Queue: 2 jobs
Job 1
Amino acid sequence: MLSKPLLPSAYSRCQNKSQFFLTQRGADEQFLSRPVRQRDRLPPVLRGHGHMDFDHTFCIAYRTNYSRNNRANILACHQAVKDRPQVIQNAVLNLELALRGAQTERHSGFRAPRILLYVAHAITLIPGDGIGPEVADATARAVEATGVSIEWDRVDAGVEAEKATGKYLPDTVLESLGRTKVGLKGPVGTPIASGHSSINVALRKRLNLFVNFRPVRMLPGLKTRFADLPIDMIIFRENTEDLYAGIEHEVVPDVVESLKVITRVASEKIAKAAFEYATLEKRKKVVAIHKANIMKMSDGLFLRCCRETAARFPGIEYSELIVDNACMQLVMRPETFDVLVLPNLYGDIVSDLAAGLVGGLGIVPGANLGDNCAVFEAVHGSAPDIAGKGVANPTALMQSARLMLAHIGERDAAIRLQKAIEKVYADGKHLTHDVGGSAGTKEFTDAVIAALR
Ligand code: NAD
């Protein structure tokens, strides 16, 4: 279900052909003055239906006069949105409920001219710790400036949540993600060598977000040591096991063991994800990165799964690199890498190395993807050294939001946001300190929003 009561039990009044405003009775106040956008790009399946408006960017507006076509319209709607995100499908469900409610009212003698259903994407926003709230707010502003309607369900995890609820990962976070299926998350701090275990790892494991997806690309105009190289690589890091299984114990005093867990199921899933992506995006090469010369069983199993998967994708060139050699090659010839697939720990380390090639942690986006849920987050941490100073670079989270927009079907908005970020970098006048500029978080964000218009 949607995170907020989006369904107006109220009726609408038509302002003009392309704008509707919700009226009274239970509709959330904030929706009362929002226009439904133009009915451009009506999906073909809906074009024949006079009763329906469909806004390609975010909403279904549905009107009915209780005609006998209602059922047909709903079915058409189901058909049109079957590949759309869950939130839209929920909206259709709500639509059916609305119709049932309306029919009841009709029988009681009250005749309404139409029902309007207004739907926004429900997204869980987890601002996080340190610079998290600063970059999350900046990103939310930029996303809203694309014109896509988002209902943010803001929930806390990390230090702030612990202060309020006594828990670093309160149930509200998982409940919200269970509802919305999509999250945008700022960084959350984890104490080193003691204290609570990582919330990020817990979230990935609890929601089975088995893919960590990190595209690493050079932004135009950015001065880095590798600025003249066409770096464009995609990292697929397994996200749920390996040494991050968090199984550690002290065998005897001063002797500890950490278990490295590698399973066929998880290894096959990440390998399949990498090859399917490579095929879909017309990438040429996948390289599996490992240390199977030493960890013959665990990394050996990971590698076997990659080889077996590679055999099913003959159109993609497959190779293997031992992780230490891979790190050297990444620094010496980063432009030769295309798609990389790695177990969890190597993936974590190599992701930061790759981020360093294209301007640092403030730049690179990330997505944690599972079968039922996706959480988008930057690669960087909570940066306690600069928290609260208004200087954090929100690019990484904005780029993560760009991935999120594409994921929820808002490809146009995703491309516009990407181009706006690139324009600000190409101009070079409003860059943050970490990438050689002197602007603060707000100034950079304002520039991105201006470039969107
Ligand atoms: P970090 O990424 O927080 O900081 C490393 C360096 O990069 C710092 O100098 C910081 O100022 C700079 N930096 C990072 N992000 C920046 C940004 N957006 N703009 C400008 N500069 C930026 O890494 P760390 O210091 O190793 O970790 C700090 C905390 O973050 C730890 O508790 C760690 O566990 C946590 N962490 C969380 C995540 C996550 O939530 N996904 C990821 C990594 C680390």
Job 2
Amino acid sequence: MPNRSASPTPVAILSALLQEQQGLMELLHRPQKVAHAGRDFWLGELHGRPVVLALSKIGKVAAATTATALIERFGVRRMVFTGVAGGLGAGVNVGDVVVASDFVQHDLDASPLFPRYEVPLYGRSRFEGDAALTALLFKAASAALGDGGIGGAGAAFAGARAHLGLIASGDRFVSGASESRGLHAALTGAGHEVLAVEMEGAAVAQVCHDYGVPFAAVRTISDRADDSAHVDFPRFVEEVASRYAHAIVEKLLLSLEP
Ligand code: SAH
């Protein structure tokens, strides 16, 4: 049994919304709140491992600020994002979980100066999750779905699946069937086989790339980014998202090396 408390640098666990953080807050030992950059950061221990819990806030800029603060101010050297997203890919249904292999910014378009979706001056449009951390997160998510560890949600989401693939981020809540079809068609047409859409992940992935900090992200599908997304979303976040985050992060932390 490794001595986890020997780990000098905390693992950051980011959530977009308060409801998503709640399940983790309940687990946090010796919580200590630090206010910084207009945000509350919660230091403490989960399963004997030092962690910092933070809310990214919503959208790419807010998430980038939070990720930068976690690295610069709190010295984190691993970052994990848990949140919800709209399903875009075929067969990516409400109650499923998508672990990000990589991210693209669907609203980034500096064409014709740069190819559509390319992040100018980076020479790329996609930022990958850390391979090892992402593999552990996918294992944790699959196990949480498989063993009924996501209490209470099991009945409603029998047959829920874990997917591994591309997530698109942008500063829009996508809530229309024609918009989500258009988004899916434009991305796949450019070679980006997208599974889900949300508003923060690509920004955090880019910050972690800049700093060389391993990053992994998991999103529970709360809606299908269609005409009923705004109806499905709040209920799902209230009733389900917090349990998913709790179950998956718990399994991930137990599987991490110190
Ligand atoms: N008024 C809402 C705002 C939520 S924004 C509230 O505060 O309750 C939606 C959040 O969920 C973002 O953090 C985003 O990352 C994610 N998300 C879920 N479904 C989405 C969708 N269909 N399109 C974009 N983001 C989505």
